[in-house]
Specification:
Elements (H helix, E strand, L loop, with lengths): L2 H11 L21 H15 L5 H5 L4 H8 L4
């Protein structure tokens, strides 16, 4: 999966418009980032990347690109 495809999937999880999400955005600044969105991301990581991530690993990320790196996407 490309970085752009990753951003598009994450945009859907966060209920944002495609193209609105940038890799450098801080997670703390994203209004759509709720506990439900976090669980959605963890399920997405498991389904698309076969990665079982913990909420703690998610919480350690500061930016959208940190999430991409967490699942193995080169940024």
């Amino acid at each position: 999966m490309s970085h752009e495809e990753f951003l598009n999937h994450l945009s859907e999880i966060l209920e944002m418009s495609a193209g609105e999400l940038k890799g450098t955005m801080k997670l703390a600044d994203l209004e759509g980032l709720t506990s439900v969105a976090m669980i959605g991301f963890l399920a997405f990581a498991d389904e698309h990347f076969n990665k079982t991530l913990s909420p703690r690993q998610f919480a350690a990320c500061e930016t959208v690109d940190d999430l991409a790196k967490l699942v193995g996407i080169a940024v």
